[in-house]
Design goal:
The protein has eleven helices and no strands. Helix content is 72%, strand content 0%.
């Protein structure tokens, strides 16, 4: 296995990482939205927030614990990891299809009404464009992945890979919570919305961890993260809220995306045991 398993790290290093990942990020988005009046939906406004985990990981690795970057997964590993790059690239689209199929089977969505071309850009052209776009913006999602999946997850609970993965997903979700109150995402019921959102982050972290460890590079999880945001979240939200009279709210859409994600998590942990516990432990 090319990547390192859970790595022992000092408590001080973890504390400093969490402080540096949370405090500047939360402080920034609060000032940006509440003081400066900027929209946190704007990708340019999001950049400092998105790169806070990477900055925290670099500072801790370089100056706090001085452990360096040997297990950081910075090498692309194109030749050996190309199958995982393909999974990272096309996986979010497969999850999107699974989400829409689930909604259709439950009678919550009709393809003919929400995805029909009414003289504008055909939906398939938009999807192809998004698939190409995620390749371009993958470095932006490295900002989170280098911090969460390639630093915290490897060190949070050494020698207990499942606990480390689940806790990392939980922390990653909590880090996003201010966005639910600043206009980035809106839930009809805040507590229920945050609970569903949190569960979604945990499932994503399982998949991202599998990619990171099986490929030995942080770039596969960064690519998948970009796809999750720009294909899975965007396409499903657009399609499932387009039906007149039957539009689903954010909580329902997020819950539906968890169905294929849950299937994917079960596949890598149960159906394919050689990609299960071993996969999440490196």
């Amino acid at each position: 296995m090319p990547s390192s398993p859970c790595t022992t790290s000092s408590t001080g290093g973890l504390v400093w990482f969490l402080v540096l990942a949370f405090v500047p990020a939360w402080g920034y988005v609060l000032v940006a939205r509440l003081v400066l009046g900027w929209s946190v939906v704007d990708p340019l406004v999001q950049l400092p927030f998105a790169f806070a985990p990477a900055v925290a990981a670099v500072v801790v690795r370089r100056w706090v614990t001085r452990e360096g970057f040997a297990d950081a997964g910075l090498r692309p590993r194109w030749r050996k990891a190309w199958p995982h790059y393909l999974i990272a690239w096309w996986g979010p689209l497969a999850l999107t299809v699974g989400t829409l199929a689930t909604a259709a089977l439950l009678g919550l969505w009709a393809p003919s009404t929400s995805m029909a071309d009414e003289g504008g850009t055909p939906w398939w052209v938009t999807v192809v464009g998004l698939q190409a776009f995620v390749l371009v913006i993958t470095p932006l999602y490295w900002g989170e992945e280098f911090g969460w999946t390639s630093y915290l997850r490897l060190r949070l609970v050494p020698h207990r890979p499942w606990a480390s993965t689940l806790l990392t997903g939980l922390i990653w979700a909590v880090w996003h919570y201010p966005l639910a109150f600043l206009g980035y995402v809106e839930f009809s019921h805040v507590l229920l919305g945050l609970a569903v959102w949190t569960a979604s982050f945990v499932l994503q972290e399982i998949l991202l961890t599998w990619l990171r460890l099986r490929s030995g590079t942080v770039w596969t999880s960064s690519l998948a993260h970009a796809g999750n945001n720009m294909v899975l979240s965007l396409v499903t939200a657009t399609a499932l809220s387009a039906d007149e009279g039957g539009a689903l709210d954010g909580i329902a859409v997020t819950a539906l995306t968890m169905v294929p994600m849950g299937v994917a998590c079960a596949w890598i942990t149960l159906v394919r045991p050689r990609y299960g516990r071993r996969g999440l432990s490196g």
